[in-house]
Write a structure and sequence with these properties.
The structure is a homodimer.
Chain A (H helix, E strand, L loop, with lengths): L9 H12 L15 H19 L3 H7 L2 E3 L2 E3 L4 H10 L18 H14 L1 H20 L2 H12 L3 E6 L15 E4 L6 E11 L8 E10 L10 E6 L1 E3 L5 E4 L2 E6 L10 E6 L6 E4 L6 H37 L23 H33 L5 H34 L9 H9 L9 H12 L6 H9 L11 H30 L2 H5 L2 H32 L5 H7 L1 H20 L2 H11 L3 H4 L3
Parallel strand pairs in A: 3-6, 4-6
Antiparallel strand pairs in A: 1-2, 4-5, 5-11, 5-12, 6-7, 7-12, 8-9, 10-11
Helix pairs in contact in A: 1-9, 2-5, 5-6, 5-8, 5-9, 6-7, 6-8, 8-9, 8-10, 8-11, 9-10, 9-16, 9-18, 10-11, 10-12, 10-13, 10-16, 12-16, 14-16, 14-18, 14-19, 16-18, 16-19, 17-18
Chain lengths: 612, 612
């Protein structure tokens, strides 16, 4: 761990997976029966090593060179082709993919331990790979046998890559407004696609032999709006008789965006059928496009959450390493004493406050995001009788985790830059790129505002608020009596107060909708989503703290004061700090929940009244 | 006003200067007796035009090309030399400078109306120019007659530029640790300077004929620490017998930093006396260096505050223009009605919330920062009997304004990017550069943490807390009874509650220092500085709202509902929105004050206990 290189927080990932959640229990369920706990351990170990020693090493050059459009083709930065090759040869692309097509079929909550670090160590490259896995998942989920056979294996082994083509210049957040058209070709075997898509991550590049675009389009005569949207498989090169890439399919890269960050990820404007000769192959049936998209959406949004987490985790470790080595100033408790020795800045209260805020944001996020992944595994593969409940938890927590990952991740990186000071503002240290790269997370895969609407207007209202009730039920196992230390007990009580305020806030939104109308009801939706994020991150941290108290007691038994033991014993230190991290979150971050409650309670809608 | 170009909020600047503060009253005081209100108006008008039509036009190219070190010399971006020339020919560099040396001698609170926009429209270029004015001010303030004659005029007319050379690799926040040495030369007329300085903005460039470095160094045998620091004038080229730049003075540009933003501002590592032949000329007397620095510091820190303001103001106007023109989605109040028309996104509650938050942050900052500039003018040139009081207000508010400018400015830009969505993340729109450029504000001229320590450990303690009492006294003129609308009255009451919480928080810090120690007392210093910022910004906005209520009543008299009148009448709209802006700040931003109070109240110091 140093101040310039990406490193994985292996110990905390193991803690969350094995001690907090117990993902190793998944081997009891089909289709994970062939795995052992040792397999899971090995995946984490090898994946983390790969992230640190391969992925991370081309992150900076990727940022410096970016992907560029040259004579109509996209050229990726030095080393990207080779890294892509290594990645797919090691099987990381298909880590959760269908084993029938060469995927490893690992549980998401196991795979996420690796995916967090891959995204964090090279966000630009991972964006393209992650979308390839997503596109393959769509074909695997909705395609016919012929389509699956033709595409899935080659995509999961990275010979080909994939994209999601939703947005158009007039249709971003409102995806129902797309105008790209599909005309049924005479022979019935394919459609002709015509339209221009933008914000296509990995829209073109030189790392794979073919690119399989999943394109949302409107079949002639389809109903207006969201209901008339279909999904098409549109390869860059059509497959020839042997299933190999053959003739060009009239997909043109019009331009690449010049972005603030993730510069190596080619974000393309693509023109489909400029010469009227672009073939698209319908997925499943006409007008199913949006429903298909939504099924994919949960996983895609969780992906963005762990982008924020992975980048922020790396930033925290860089900042901590820097704060330990950088000497500046004398301890404030020594005042202006003559001869006071300079100390490393980690000693200064303000710096410690920032570092612990980073740590708490990161570890709170890790708890939340991994839990969602675990619930997702249980919703699909766990005991039949509890699947519905876990799906509900996934549904309510996805927008929460997406926004928390994006915003807390960004906030953590911002603080990291502040810890480094001047050098943090230079591109010599990784914080600058991290800040630029992570900023996208609140914008793509649905902006924070869109997530918040999903939570407040859909998820909270579903089945009379049952999802929220199930979340409250889930969080009942953290209670003050379980705490050993008074500070942990107080933290749990404080958190419970916030939970009460959250309930009142949710009730207020309902009242606002009824008394004033939908505009007032959604006015603070983004704030309320933050509130949910803070309360749930606190929950996972407090649950962790209770576990840590027991572990620490075992280690420290008879050896004296826990903090003393923590100085020398690495495991004791981990648990001691975990407890302090939970306290810090509750007493120094969660208080912003008070502010959200006050905002909603004020019922002031000046912003809706202003004449803008 | 559009979504891609910088535009000045002339109407709001006029409001703050003339209606809120009444800076035109300064013509009653020496040395402003020769100015008229019309002069002030003209300066604002012309300066704003210059910012928009000259400064802003080379901002993007400056970012793209940056300043580069080529064969030992720094080359600035295309158009920078010409822009520098126009700037100084128009007299903007000496806008507050001593008229004896060609300065215009305008009050700071008048000049700031222009300086905000100059900094906002081209932060990189303005950084170099602003430091030149600062260096000239130091020589004007502390130099002998010969030094003043030799340097001040040429610096104020921009023939030469200036820098401040404080930091070294081992001495950043702890400036007392500098090691650069000064040896008295045999003849007694100069010193030989030896050492390496870094983070020198404008350290070298090609826009001026000479560069006058103000260098902090330690004379051989001087006391250790801050008390042994002296200030030297160190020109890049020594002056020959005719006062023109002559022989090279052995100042070498070692490298330029590669920064996240303000890329056109050359941030240099400078080596002084690498060959043992660098002449420095003592300013005033040995060991006065730090005291001289501190006298300059207040103004320099206010400069950073209006950097944040100027960039954020431009970002708000870009975002508002975009939100008015970008159509996306249908109104939520129309639900899924068939045939609902798409609307501009400014209509959506979440977007309005973000825009009004940007507006409130910007206008709150403008009130606070311009007030500090006005207090500063009165402290130096106002009625003798109140000068001390105004100096106290300046002293307590400078760290508050610096942090608020830096952090609220950054937050406003971040929100602006969110309003624009995907396009905001591209470098085609100005938000990306604005985000990168403005990030430096929390780091340079003393990090946010350093400002917070200044407020909490020095300013709040001075003379038994008298400065804080004077600030409270100053804010007593905003009372609920003065409000006309119930919403404004409630806002004032709500603000008064927060003010009470601030008093309690300040008292808590004192108790913490006595009961637990200095580490605990400063633990939340940065948060407390935010609290001060929020309460003071609210004050200036509420005072503005009271004024606006009267003006609006005059305009709307007998014409019906204020909001109706505001639709068509531009002046009415300005005042109506000003009232709503104050309400929005108090009910949607100020609540974070609750969170600070809770953090301090918790007395949890887990971050100090953790073993990091």
């Amino acid at each position: 761990m140093n101040s310039t290189e990406y490193s994985v927080d292996l110990r905390d990932i193991q803690f969350v997976q094995k001690e907090l959640l117990g993902v190793q229990k998944l081997v009891d369920y089909e289709p994970f029966g062939e795995f052992s706990e040792e397999d899971f351990d090995m995946v984490l170990r090898e994946g983390s090593k790969f992230a640190e020693s391969v992925f991370a090493t081309v992150n900076k050059i990727g940022d410096e060179q970016g992907s560029n459009l040259e004579n109509g083709d996209v050229v990726t930065p030095e080393g990207f082709k080779e890294t892509w090759r290594q990645y797919v040869e090691n099987g990381w692309l298909g880590i959760t993919g269908n084993p029938r097509f060469g995927g490893q079929g690992l549980p998401l909550s196991v795979a996420i331990g690796v995916m967090e670090s891959l995204y964090g160590s090279n966000p630009a490259l991972y964006t393209v790979l992650m979308l390839t896995a997503g596109a393959a998942g769509l074909i695997n989920g909705f395609g016919d046998e012929q389509q699956k056979t033709a595409y899935c294996e080659k995509m999961l082994n990275g010979t080909w890559s994939g994209t999601m083509c939703l947005s158009e210049s007039g249709a971003g957040s409102a995806v129902g407004d797309i105008t790209t058209k599909a005309f049924k070709a005479g022979d019935g075997g394919h459609y002709l696609i015509k339209g221009t898509k933008q914000w296509i991550s990995g829209g073109d590049h030189d790392m794979a032999e073919n690119i399989i675009h999943m394109v949302l389009a409107r079949v002639e005569g389809a109903p207006a709006g969201p209901k008339g949207i279909s999904m098409f498989i549109v390869p860059k090169f059509r497959l020839d008789g042997t299933g190999q890439p053959g003739a060009s399919n009239n997909v043109t890269t019009v331009r690449l965006e010049h972005k603030l960050g993730i510069k190596a990820s080619p974000t393309a404007v693509l023109e489909f059928g400029g010469s009227g000769d672009c073939h698209g192959y319908l997925l499943e049936a006409e007008n199913h496009g949006l429903a298909q998209m939504f099924k994919l959406m949960n996983e895609a949004r969780l992906t963005i959450a762990y982008q924020g987490l992975g980048i922020a985790s790396g930033a925290y470790r860089n900042a901590l390493a820097y704060a330990r080595e950088r000497e500046q100033g004398i301890p404030i408790e020594q005042g202006k004493e003559q001869g006071a020795e300079r100390v490393a800045i980690v000693h200064h209260p303000d710096v410690r406050n920032m570092l612990m805020t980073m740590k708490a944001l990161v570890e709170g996020l890790r708890g939340l995001i991994y839990a969602v992944a675990y619930y997702n595994d249980l919703a699909h593969h766990g005991p039949e009788e509890s699947r519905g409940r876990y799906q509900d938890l996934v549904d309510i927590l996805i927008p929460v985790a997406k926004n928390a990952g994006a915003d807390q991740g960004f906030e953590a990186v911002r603080l990291g830059m502040q810890v480094l000071g001047g050098v943090g503002y230079t591109e010599e240290f990784p914080l600058a790129q991290a800040l630029r790269d992570t900023k996208i997370a609140s914008i793509y895969e649905g902006t924070s505002g869109i997530q918040a609407l999903d939570l407040v207007t859909r998820k909270l209202g579903m089945r009379g608020g049952e999802l929220f009730q199930e979340l409250l039920e889930e969080m009942k196992d953290v209670t003050p009596e379980k705490a050993k230390a008074p500070s942990v007990r107080q933290a749990i009580e404080h958190w419970q107060d916030s939970l009460e305020k959250l309930k009142l806030t949710v009730a207020s939104v309902k009242n606002l909708a009824e008394e004033l109308g939908p505009r007032e009801a959604v006015f603070n939706a983004t704030d309320i989503t933050v509130f949910f994020g803070d309360v749930t991150c606190s929950y996972y941290l407090l649950k962790s703290a209770l576990l840590a108290e027991s572990r620490l007691e075992e280690i420290a038994a008879g050896n004296g004061d826990a903090r003393e033991v923590a100085q020398d014993n690495e495991e004791a230190r981990f648990y001691f700090n975990k407890i302090k991290t939970a306290e810090h979150y509750v007493f120094q971050i969660l208080p912003r929940a008070l502010s959200v409650a006050a905002k909603v309670q004020s019922r002031n809608f000046a912003a809706l009244e202003a004449v803008l």
